[in-house]
Amino acid sequence: MTVVTVGVHIVDILTRPVSHIPEGQDTVLVDQIRLTAAGSAAGTAVDLVRLGHEVVSLGAIGDDELGDFLIMVMSRHGVDVSGLRRRTGEQTSASILPIRPDGGRPSFHVPGANLSVTLADLDPEVIRSAKAIHLGGMDVTFGLGDPAFFALLDEVRAGGTIVTMDLLSEMPDLLQMAKAFLPHVDYVLPNEEQAKIMAGADDAARAAALLGPNVIVTLGGRGSLVNGEIVPALPVEVSDTTGCGDAYCAGFITGLLRGDDVLEAARLGTAAAAQVATGLGSDAGDLEGLK
After folding, report:
1. What is the pLDDT of residues 207-248, one digit of tens each?
2. Domain range annotation of the chain
3. What is the 3-class SS of the chain, one letter each residue?
4. CATH fold of 2-18+32-284, please?
């Protein structure tokens, strides 16, 4: 089934393990350095392909070497990147992620061309052809908060297309803007902090209740909150938490397209996230085994 991902595309440069940033010109030897396709649209697109879907990814990247890399690596994974727009003179979004020994991931981030995405960058016929659409990072793709885009989402949903949304930031102003998408999507998958900020609540359960019945709150190592029920995380040895949210979304979408109920889809999302957590980067783990 064709799935379209729309929104944030990032190149991640990851290294592990990093327990401290060296002083001055000092060097620290590490075990591994990787570059991966990441972000709420690109990372989810790669994981959806690994779960057996045909995937088209839409958004904007720079006309630079990082953009060349992103095109190459997403294509190698099997994502259709023909709809990605290249911005002359803009940088492709990128993050440097020094991964701590416990899997935590502080970051240095450049938003880049993601900030410039508008409805004019999206092919409406590609959107209309999808069985599912995943909106990745609508809190930072400001130009997509467009009534014409909302109308297009309403149109495809009326025809049976599933629309899901994930978020990128934890900045209150941006998350409040993203609330405009809530009436136009089927499922929203914020993390706990994002949900609390959006709802103005002090706990995940209260936030989910305020935001609506189709809000799935991911809780990191505790699992996820689905219709008031905790779906526990699977016990794995965590190497890196980068991309776990993207993998959860990919597994959740896969479950919905299989006809699973929401709880079962969340369990598949949980299994996908657990696989990604076992390696370095958003494309780690054996998702093919979950098809």
Report:
1. 999 998 899 999 999 999 999 999 999 999 998 889 999 999
2. 2-18+32-284
3. CEEEEEECCEEEEEEECCCCCCCCCCCCCCCEEEEEEECCCHHHHHHHHHCCCEEEEEEEEECCHHHHHHHHHHHHHCCECCCEEEECCCCCCEEEEECCCCCCCCCEEECHHHHHCEHHHCCHHHHHHCCEEEEECCCCCCECCCHHHHHHHHHHHHCCCEEEEECCCCCHHHHHHHHHHHHHCCEECCEHHHHHHHHCCCCHHHHHHHHCCCECEECHHHCEEECCEEECCCCCCCCCCCCHHHHHHHHHHHHHHHCCCHHHHHHHHHHHHHHHHCCCCCCCCCCHHHC
4. UDP-N-acetylmuramoyl-L-alanine:D-glutamate ligase (3.40.1190)
